[in-house]
Amino acid sequence: MMDTRLIGVHIIIKNEAELLPDCLESVKDADELIIVDTGSVDGSDEIAKAYGAKVIYTEWTHSFAASRNEALLHATTDWIIYIDADERLVGGIEAVRTLLQDTKNTEAFTVLIENVLGATLEDRLFHRAVRIFQNRKGFAFHGAIHEDIGPSIIDKCGIASIQDAPLHLLHLGYLPQQMSSKNKVARNEAILKKGLAEQPSHPFYLYHMGITCCQSGRLEEAVEYMSKALVHAANSASFRPTLVRDLVKIRIERQEAIPSEMLLRQEIRTYPDYADLHFWLGQTLEMQGQLDASLESFHNATTFQNDRYVTEAGISGYRSFYKIGEIAARLGRYEAAAKSFYQAIQEHRTYHPALLGIAEAFRQLNVADPEISSLLQTLVQPQASSQYSTIADVLYQIGAFQELIASIPSHMLEDKAIRMQYAMALIQSGLYAEAESLLTKDAFSSDEDQEQAAQLLYICQRQLHGHLQETALRDIPERLCESLHQLDRYLQLGGLSDNDEDTQHLSKLACSLIRQAVYLQCLQTAELLTAWSDDCELVYAKELYRLGCTDQAAELFIAMLHEQRLDEEGTFMIGEILFDKGHYFQAAELFEGALATQPDDPKARTAASLCYLQLAGDNLRQAAAKSQDRQLFADDLAKIDGSILLLNRTGWHTEWTGYRRRVRNEATRHLLVHDSKE
Question: Is there a single domain that holds both residue 553 and residue 522?
């Protein structure tokens, strides 16, 4: 009889030379390595052999289950772990040996799989799956895609024979670069189409075809496939709760709040302990302005912490605490908001939304910027450059520019992201020469960073001298220098290039500079650049509005409206301005115009409805004032006021946060002291 601790690892490969070494390193102590190669031409098989693997060469039959079952035919160990080349076994084989030493009456184990979706800790998706099982005759994989041996084990030994193991796999296959380089979406779609041709109502195939459509941006098709899958999937199907979650997320992306809410309320009865469903119910309620009800759903999400379901990182913790804080802040409950943000940060101390939220909440509670900066330092306890960058970004967003400058140690300026944030804070503080000293050094390697640095230098030059000096861009790539100098020459001459291609390129550059200049509150530079074209003036007006300079923006918008130069976005912005000033009839006309071109625009529909409700309320109040029995109108007025309150909470209107709120609240229009000449 074989030693029951003998462990085999099975992997399917095809051109995995980049990922395979790290995978094999994590399982190198296995008693047997079996690799099924379905057609590698990049030397993957030789890498496997170097680790002592037995390589089985087979043709690709468009079925992952077939390849897994081929590996089973060659297995000689008692226990088998199956993984992919883009996975890593955390803790190595020794962790598995420890698990199996005391195993009795168990045929298989699930392991926790951490799917890495991006660079941050919150870019994670967790789920459990059977990956370790006894090598018994009769067990077989099923499924052309996302193959699974679990049903075979349950069929023969019952579900009680499968236990959860405290083991962890790290999966890198969902990273964007991996999805793109392996062309996984096209591969999966081909497999699924073949499967659906044979079994058109197969719920698992329908569900994953929906996922494939979503990954390629075809959201309407994704909803159709997933909705059909939901009809055919049994409540007991292991993938069904995840199907509900994914379908709801897509429908929310499509702004389908009410159908999403109805589906979630129904499915929560089936899966009451699935935190993600409570979280997304909170999102749908928030979209409809039902903020108090959404708070309850987010609180519910924090009460269910288990790994039975596919779940996003932080859903039952810091993500939900953040949402609770965000909604409390929207309701004006800033102390409660700060407490919830603090709870989120206790779980994830560099969670940017919660750090920004707590800084904003304390700003609303009139806490001074130096104290907020000190709090952020205490909460994050920065050591790595990424942590300093997070603090810098939060301080920048709330307009604490001096505190940002004071909080960054000089050696951290070697980090490109921090250097850029620091330079922008210097510009916001009117310290243009100091900013130039950072930007002119050869510190930015990527094209995007070099372009931004060049634009910031141009803005500094304009603010300091009114024009671009010849030597200002000596350390900037020539292609960027020439365009900026060319733009500056034309602006000084007051004329445009005769070359249409030049004009188009320089107009695009001028618009980009305007966006940067307004964002940096360098309005004199931004206004000078509007002379380039009508498009530049429109960009300037929109950016002024986003900054919070609504009166200045309104003057420009009105002039453009009369000259029929205002686009849909600008029209909506002036509609918001009119609405805020109580000119509901005129605002309604503009919002109706937006609906004529985009009838499904939820923001325009909400805005128009609010205008009519406000007008109806005004008329009722006038009628009530003339009536001897005002109570006759009370119920209708209460309903109208309730509807107005609800719709105003749906997020239809531009919201100013951070330093933009400060700009908007300034009493005078000329608030930028560092924009004026000293």
Answer: no
> Is beta strand 54-57 parallel, antiparallel or unpaired with respect to 7-13?
unpaired
Same-domain pairing of 507 and 630? no
Count the neighbouring beta carbons within 10 Å of the beta carbon of residue 551. Answer: 12
Domain stops at, among 530, 548, 566: 548
Task: Quote the pLDDT of residue 485.
Answer: 86
The Cα–Cα gap between 427 and 462 comes to 12
Strands (E), 118-233: 124-134, 162-171
User: CA 408: distance to chain centroid?
Assistant: 27
pLDDT of residue 441: 60
Residue 140 structure tokens: 């077989």
Beta carbons of 50 and 27 less than 8 angstroms apart: no
Q: How many CB atoms lie within 10 A of CB 13?
A: 25
Rg of the Cα atoms in the chain: 30
Instruction: Confirm whether 305 is domain-assigned.
Output: no
219 or 665: which carries more pLDDT confidence?
A: 219
Name the residue range of residue 43's domain: 7-175
Nearest to 421 by CA among 473, 464, 456: 456
433 class by beta-carbon count within 10 Å (0-12 exposed, 13-18 middle, 19+ buried): exposed
Mark whether 137 and 12 lie in a shared domain: yes
- Cα separation, 529 vs 497, in Å, equals 15
Instruction: Tell me which of 528, 548, 568 is where a domain ends.
Output: 548
Phi, psi of 126 (to 5 degrees): -115, 140
| pLDDT of the residue at 341 | 98
Structure pTM? 0.91
Which residues, other chains included, contact 560 with Cβ-Cβ below 8 Å and sequence gap of 6+? 537, 538, 541, 566, 570
- What is d(CA 423, CA 437) in angstroms, rounded to the nearest whole number? 9
Q: What is the DSSP string of 221-255?
A: HHHHHHHHHHHHS-TT-TTHHHHHHHHHHHHHHTT
Does residue 175 have a pLDDT over 70?
Answer: yes
Sign of CA dihedral 49, 54, 58, 64: negative
- Tens-place pLDDT, residues 619-669: 999 998 888 777 888 999 999 999 999 999 999 999 999 999 999 987 344
The rounded distance, in Å, linking the Cα atoms of 203 and 217 is 21
Q: What pLDDT score does 444 carry? A: 76
Closest of 145, 115, 147, 111 to residue 130, by C-alpha? 111
At 547-597, the pLDDT tens digits run 999 999 999 999 999 999 999 999 999 999 999 999 999 999 999 988 988
pLDDT confidence of residue 67: 96
